[in-house]
Amino acid sequence: MVSFLRVLERVIKIADNIYSPLGTSTEENFKAVKSGISGLKKYCDMFDSVEPFTASAMPVRMTFRQMCIESATRALQQTDIDPSSDDVIFVFSTTKGEDLRLWEPSVAVARHFGNNNQPIIVSNACISGVNAQIMASRVLKAGLYKTAVVIGCDVLSKFIVSGFQSLKALSADKCLPFDKNRQGLNLGEAAACMVLSTVNGNYESKRWIYEAGSIHNDANHISGPSRTAEGSYRCLADCLKNIDTADLAFISVHGTGTAYNDEMESIALHRVGLDSKPVVALKCYYGHTLGAAGVLETLLSMQAIEHQEIPAALGFKEQGTTYNCMLPTTKTNVKGNSFIKILSGFGGCNAAVRWVLR
């Protein structure tokens, strides 16, 4: 039986890693982003019979399990956690896994670290990375495990690229989130890992604490978001309950660069009264990294608050949504110790998490 005190334990981030075309550590990645370096490039012959596309790809082709192991290894090396312990659960966020297989490679990664627990696999379109954080926090707070290794990863493939091309969703050039001249999204590949744990007591240094999470489905359309932003609005409203928004540094948005998603997010932010809050949009650096996006962009948001500086929205010139979003065109200093990360995806799914540094 789970004790009442156990349920009240906090979930904190104790380690992390981003393994991407911009670096093999979270710090390297943030340094690159802060310097205005984008991983987006034009690829003309990566896959047979696929039209040229702009994306952020690893310099050497790697498999899903290879990237997961690389990122998780680097994160776990920062801890004294024994990943083979029964108290550790591996949580995977991915939309395609390895050649459309989700279970086998995820189990292989967990077993690589000697962990025999049945891993949790979250595959819920673009919100998977935030959804995985929420799922991990739930099982930790319920006392089922003490530590969760959350890994978000997707690798580019012919299936993924041609699929988005068939939807006419890809931009031939670098994406321009929220800009009037945006033409669509770019794709990307990366692995990102965050090690979460439940703790009691005080710490000498500040820690990132998971404070809230919310998932809603607006049931609007299989590939189009709600025109009133209902699902995203409800997620934001849930994460804003009982807090002073003065402590909120910024909103880390999905910001795909597609016409309807950016418009929907601007409506959601307006409906909850956050028009004047700075917005962080990172797809102009990484493209849409699918199952990795929620984890990768959460970790970079944490870095932004720790450095009190948010990166510029590369290429942004003129507002292209109904409601203005406060996208910085240069590196900008910010104040506040918390942020909200929002995502939306196919099937009308929406998710948000709020983290605070204390």
Structure description:
Helix 4 (103-112) links the parallel strand 4 (88-93) and strand 5 (120-122). The radius of gyration is 19 Å and the shape is globular. It is 28% helix and 23% strand. The strands form three sheets. It has a ten-stranded mixed sheet with strand order 5-4-6-8-1-9-15-14-10-11, with helices on both faces. It has a three-stranded mixed sheet with strand order 2-3-7, with no helix packed on it. The model is unreliable at 1-7 (pLDDT under 50). By secondary structure, it is of the alpha/beta class. The chain folds into two domains: 12-197, Thiolase/Chalcone synthase (Peroxisomal Thiolase, Chain A, domain 1, 3-Layer(aba) Sandwich), CATH 3.40.47; 208-357, 3-Layer(aba) Sandwich (Peroxisomal Thiolase, Chain A, domain 1), CATH 3.40.47.10.
Computed over alpha carbons, the radius of gyration is 19 Å
Low-confidence stretches: 1-7
Tally of strands: 15
Q: Which structural class matches the secondary elements?
A: alpha/beta
What spatial form do the alpha-carbon principal axes imply? globular
The fraction of residues assigned to DSSP E strands is 15-25%
Instruction: Name the strands of the widest sheet in spatial order.
Output: 5-4-6-8-1-9-15-14-10-11
CATH superfamily of the largest domain: Thiolase/Chalcone synthase
What can be said about the biggest beta sheet? 10 strands, mixed
Write down the overall mean pLDDT.
Answer: 94
CATH C-level class of the largest domain: Alpha Beta
Number of helices: 10
Order of helices and strands: HEHEEHEHEHEHEEEHEHEHHEEEE
Whole-number tally of structural domains: 2
Based on the structure given, which CATH architecture of the largest domain is correct? 3-Layer(aba) Sandwich
CATH topology of the largest domain: Peroxisomal Thiolase, Chain A, domain 1
Ends: how far apart?
30 Å
Q: What is the helix fraction of residues, given as a range? A: 25-40%
